[in-house]
Design a protein that fits this description.
Length: about 475
C-alpha cells in the first residue's frame, strides 16, 4: 500500500448515461490538494455546490448509493469511489454536469483507465489510514447479511454471495491486497435478476440500463412473449436467453463476476468513511444498505479512537507538516514558534509535537534551578496546534488570522521538563460556524495526560486580501 497521499496529474473527462436517472453527463476528475479527500461538484446547478463523499451524506439506497449535501444530489457513487480506492488516489474533485456518474460498462475499469491515462502524482503528506483497532461487526438476521472488520496491516476483502439461484448459486470473491483491485475486480459489471427488472423500471430506476452496461440473470423459464416484452422494455429489436441463464447471450468476464462486483460495490461504499482503511473485511451477502450501515459503524469507531486514544509518535516517519510548513501557515516567529511537527491532520482532528529543550529562553527565568515548562506556554502550544486545524479548513490559510477567544476547563496534571516530548491532540467539538471554532485538547508526555483544556478561537480574514 502507498504511504504517501496521491492525486492525479491532470484533469480527465469521461462521458455517458447514468444507470438509474438515464441522464447523459460529463464527469471530470481534477487534481486536488493534500487532505482534500473525495468530493463531487454539481457544476450544472446554481453556485456549483460541492458534495463530500461521506457516509453521513447518504440519503438513498434504492438500488445504489446516493449522497446529498448543500442542496445537490449525486446518484450511484459507488463505482466511481471504488476506482479511487483501487488506484489508491486520496485527493480528487469530481465535477459532474448531471445528477449521476456515467455507468460506462457497469464496472469501474473505464474510470481507472481514464485516471491512468493522465497518471498519478505523489503528494508530500502521509496517508491518513484508519487501522481497524478491534473487531467491528454488523448483522441483519432477517436478510442473513453479516459484515465484519478485523485488525490487519493491509486492506483485504472477502465477499460471499448466495442468491438461492440455480444460475449463480453460492459465489466467493476476494483480494488479499488493495493493489489487486485493478486487475481482479475493477472490470466486474453490475447485475440484476430478471424478476427485478420490471420492478426497477416501475420504480423509475435503471432508465439508463442497457445490456451493454449490466448483466441480467435469468433465473426462471421465460416465454417468447416475455422476451418480446423485454425487448420493448429495453428498446432492443430482440433479446434472447442462453442456456447459462444470462439475458441476450452476454458473456461473463469471470465465472464469479457477480460476487466480484459485490466486492467492488463494498469497497466503493466503504470509501464513504473518509479515510483509507487497514483491516480485513469479511462480508456475507452484502448490499448497499448493509454496506452503508457498516460504514457508519466504522466511522463511529474512527471518531471514538481519534478522541480517546493516546497518540503514537514515531519520529522515523515523515510528518504531515515540518517546521517549514508550519511557519508557512502560522504567523508566529522566534521565539514564539512552539510546535515542531504536525503528525496527523484531518477535517476534525490534529496532532502536533513539541520537543522541550533546556536551550529555550523561558528557562532562564522560570524556575532556573528547577526548570518546568510554563503552563501558559503549554496552552499556547496547544492553541498553535489547534490553529493548524482551523486554518486547514480554508483554501488560503496565509490570508487569515486565528485569535484566541477563550480557554475553559484547563487542568495541568503533571509537570513538563526539558527533554520531554509533548504530543498535543486537538479535535473540534462542533463544526466551525461563522468563523468560530470550539475544540478540546489534551497534551501527553510518555503516554500520560499532562494538560487538557477546551478552547475557542476566531478565524478572521486579513484586511486587504
Amino acid at each position: 500500500m502507498n504511504d504517501k497521499q496521491h492525486t492525479i496529474k491532470a484533469p480527465v473527462t469521461v462521458s455517458g448515461i447514468g444507470l438509474h436517472t438515464g441522464v447523459v453527463a460529463n464527469m471530470t476528475f481534477l487534481p486536488a490538494p493534500v487532505n482534500h479527500g473525495y468530493k463531487f461538484q454539481r457544476i450544472d446547478l446554481p453556485g456549483q455546490p460541492i458534495v463530500a463523499a461521506d457516509v453521513d451524506n447518504v440519503v438513498d439506497l434504492s438500488r445504489g448509493t446516493t449522497i446529498e449535501q448543500n442542496g445537490a444530489r449525486i446518484n450511484t457513487v459507488e463505482h466511481t469511489l471504488a476506482a479511487m480506492v483501487g488506484l489508491q488516489v486520496d485527493n480528487i474533485l469530481i465535477q459532474l454536469d448531471g445528477p449521476e456518474p456515467p455507468i460506462m460498462d457497469g464496472s469501474s475499469i473505464e474510470f481507472i483507465n481514464a485516471l491512468e491515462e493522465v497518471g498519478l502524482e505523489e503528494q508530500n503528506a502521509l496517508r491518513n489510514f484508519f487501522e481497524i483497532p478491534q473487531g467491528i461487526h454488523y448483522k441483519d438476521s432477517e436478510r442473513e447479511v453479516e459484515l465484519a472488520a478485523l485488525p490487519l496491516n493491509d486492506y483485504r476483502v472477502t465477499v460471499m454471495v448466495d442468491y438461492n439461484s440455480p444460475v449463480l448459486g453460492s459465489q466467493h470473491a476476494s483480494i488479499t491486497a488493495i493493489d489487486q483491485f485493478r486487475d481482479q475486480i475493477a472490470s466486474s459489471r453490475t447485475f440484476c435478476f430478471l424478476h427485478e427488472l420490471e420492478a426497477l423500471y416501475k420504480q423509475n430506476l435503471i432508465k439508463g440500463g442497457d445490456l451493454a452496461n449490466a448483466i441480467v440473470v435469468v433465473d426462471r423459464v421465460v416465454t417468447e412473449e416475455e422476451l418480446s416484452n423485454l425487448a420493448t422494455l429495453l428498446n432492443k429489436p430482440k433479446v434472447a436467453v442462453k442456456k447459462e441463464g444470462i439475458l441476450n447471450n452476454v458473456e461473463l468476464r469471470y465465472k464469479n463476476e457477480p460476487a466480484r462486483h459485490k466486492l467492488l460495490d463494498l469497497i466503493g461504499d466503504l470509501a464513504l468513511v473518509g479515510r483509507p482503511l487497514k483491516g480485513q473485511i469479511l462480508a456475507a451477502r452484502p448490499g448497499h444498505a448493509a454496506n452503508v450501515a457498516f460504514a457508519k459503524k466504522i466511522k463511529k469507531q474512527m471518531q471514538e479512537v481519534a478522541i480517546q486514544n493516546v497518540p503514537v509518535y514515531d519520529p522515523t516517519k515523515e510528518p504531515v507538516m515540518d517546521i517549514n510548513k508550519i511557519t508557512q501557515t502560522l504567523p508566529h516567529r522566534f521565539p514564539f514558534v512552539l510546535i515542531d511537527k504536525i503528525i496527523y491532520l484531518d477535517e476534525s482532528t490534529v496532532i502536533g509535537v513539541k520537543n522541550v529543550t533546556m536551550n529555550e529562553m523561558q528557562f532562564q527565568g522560570h524556575f532556573p534551578a528547577n526548570p518546568v515548562y510554563p503552563g501558559v506556554y503549554q496552552i499556547e502550544s496547544m492553541a498553535q496546534t489547534g490553529g493548524i486545524l482551523v486554518l486547514s479548513t480554508v483554501p488560503d490559510p496565509e490570508n487569515y488570522w486565528t485569535y484566541f477567544l477563550g480557554v475553559d476547563k484547563c487542568r495541568f496534571r503533571r509537570k513538563v521538563i526539558p527533554g520531554d516530548t509533548i504530543i498535543f491532540k486537538c479535535w473540534l467539538l462542533a463544526p466551525i460556524k461563522r468563523g468560530i471554532a470550539k475544540m478540546e485538547g489534551k497534551a501527553f508526555v510518555n503516554g500520560k495526560v499532562v494538560m487538557e483544556a477546551e478552547m475557542s478561537a476566531s478565524i478572521v480574514r486579513k484586511e486587504g486580501v
